[in-house]
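#lab-general

N.A. 3:47 PM
ok so I finally got the sequence cleaned up, no stray characters, all 66 residues accounted for. can someone with queue access submit it? mine expired

B.Y. 3:52 PM
send it over

N.A. 3:53 PM
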Amino acid sequence: TALYPFDHAGAGETSFMLALAPESVDMTALGPDAPWWARSAGEASPELGERGAALGLARLRRLLAA
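B.Y. 4:20 PM
back already:
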């Protein structure tokens, strides 16, 4: 959604993983030779990942309550 930049291997997904499973993220793999889809991953943060998780949970709660 426009509220959360979820993308494969970019800032959104990397942030999500930093929040939920930080041991699975290797930020040293980033660099100038990173594939185009992973270039925004350097902007990732656990805080953004927490926001994404909260948005996802809120959406699930709305769907399950309907």
